[in-house]
Amino acid sequence: RPFRIAVLPGDGIGKEVMPEGLKVLKTAADKFGLNLEYRHFEWASCDYYAQTGQMMPDDWKSHLQDCDAIYFGAVGWPAIVPDHTSLYGSLLKFRREFDQYINLRPVRLFDGVPCPLANRKAGDIDFFVVRENTEGEYSAVGGKMFEGTDREIVLQESIFTRIGCDRVLRFAFEMASRRARKHLTIATKSNGIAISMPYWDERAAEIGKEYPGVTTDKQHIDILSARFVLTPDRFDVVVASNLFGDILSDLGPACTGTIGLAPSANLNPDRKFPSLFEPVHGSAPDIAGKNIANPIAMIWSGALMLDYLGRGLTGAAQKPYLDAHDAIVKAIEDVLVQGPHTPDLGGKASTSQIGDALSKVLAK
Ligand code: NAI
Ligand code: MG
Q: Residues in domain Isopropylmalate dehydrogenase-like (predicted)?
């Protein structure tokens, strides 16, 4: 049967970059003979909230769970819905209910993109951040006591389970083992956070025994962040807990130019539930409706989705899905060098012109 893809554009520029993502996927499907089927949904958006008072219908799960992947634009329109309501009412539900315990972000510097770091050229920066996406510092365990008095206490626990640590660490080791440099950096803070972080380190050492071919180094999150800026060429795969990974996975793309390029994958590698592919950026109300958003993050996220559907992203990806992924990334490289460019890259092209140009290069 075809792969079923749920299409959720969301809000703002999500609705503008999604058609370009689909355009490129269609070109790739025609060229490589991919079997893809789409289901389009208008919910998981603030427009839907404005009509119904909720972000999604009650039976949202039944629409998505028999899909193989979710292709997601961006959600949020703070003028009508507070951000925590829109995010918790959609994206965060997907991550939790579908046990998408890996958040994966490539960090790559392309030719043709001005790098905010001095003296860096394409090829110098090319690594992955693997973030734990379901537990750790982002737990709901805690509470308040003596509220409103000067004895007020607020407590929030971190949760590190053996299963939770082992599965994200194993994913990261697996990913590193399949790359040329075979190197994994493990983010920690065991000098300051003296219970959970030594445990994380201990699990990393244990899982590492399964991957003798992968070299590792352990870095405290403070110096690790500094090195993202100072020596980004040293990294291959970086694995981190939920909070540290959240920070690193914004810092990484920030070091390589515009946010309009950065893709991400929220994965349930067990494939029990659909995984979700989305640009890192949000709905950008400041530029929405102008047809000037850069669609490349959306398009690259689509390429990651094809790789995953073809059982790659730490499995052995099959032709023709891997070929399609590689060809889309190559088309992105070409268009970034030769143009056209959207205004965030100093050009004058529209969102749809980038989608057209990329499709044309891809179809060749
Ligand atoms: P944002 O990523 O939407 O925008 C930040 C800045 O980057 C803006 O100046 C915007 O114009 C620019 N930008 C973003 N994407 C771009 C693109 N493709 N091309 C060119 N420029 C681009 O972040 P912001 O402003 O903090 O949030 C806006 C809304 O998006 C909020 O409602 C927020 O909650 C939501 N949001 C949703 C996310 C998601 O759906 N995963 C992620 C981040 C924010
Ligand atoms: Mg973040």
A: 4-358
How many independent structural domains does the chain possess?
2
Residue at which a domain ends, from 195, 222, 255: 255
Torsion of CA 171, 172, 178, 184, to 10 degrees: -160
Same domain, yes or no, for 280 and 351? yes
| Tens-place pLDDT, residues 286-316 | 999 999 999 999 999 999 999 999 988 877 7
Coil, helix or strand at residue 165? helix
- Distance in Å, CA 288 to ligand 1 centroid: 10
ipTM for the whole predicted complex goes beyond 0.95: yes
CB atoms under 10 Å from CB of 229, counted, come to 12
Same-domain status, 11 and 94: yes
Q: Kindly identify the ligand whose nearest atom is closest to the C-alpha of 291.
A: 1
175 and 219 inside one domain: yes
Q: Which domain holds residue 357?
A: 1-117+258-364
Atom of ligand 1 nearest to the CA of 344: 20
Ligand 1 nearest-atom number relative to CA 13: 18
Residues 271 and 160 in one domain: no
Are residues 242 and 263 both part of a single domain?
A: no
Q: What is the pLDDT of residues 100-138, one digit of tens each?
A: 999 999 999 998 888 888 778 888 899 999 999 999 998
d(CA 278, CA 7): 11
Distance, CA of 274 to CA of 98 (rounded, Å): 7
Q: Which atom from ligand 1 is nearest to the alpha carbon of 293?
A: 19
| Ligand approaching nearest to the C-alpha of 261 | 1
Pocket test for ligand 1, best of 93, 95, 250, 281 (most atoms within 8 A of CB): 281
Tell which one of 71, 283, 354 to mutate to probe ligand 1, the residue whose CB is within 8 A of the most ligand atoms: 283
Ligand showing the shortest atom-to-Cα distance for residue 262: 1
Of 233, 255, 277, the residue that ends a domain is 255
> In this structure, which residue's CA is closest to atom 5 in ligand 1?
284
Q: With the C-alpha atoms ordered 339, 344, 348, 354, is the resulting torsion angle positive or negative?
A: positive
| Residue 310 DSSP label | T
Are 148 and 219 part of one and the same domain?
A: yes
Which one has a higher pLDDT value, 342 or 318? 342
Ligand 1: residue whose CA is nearest its atom 38: 282
The structure tokens 């040293």 sit at 234
* Global pTM value: 0.95
Question: Domain holding 214: CATH number?
Answer: 3.40.718.10
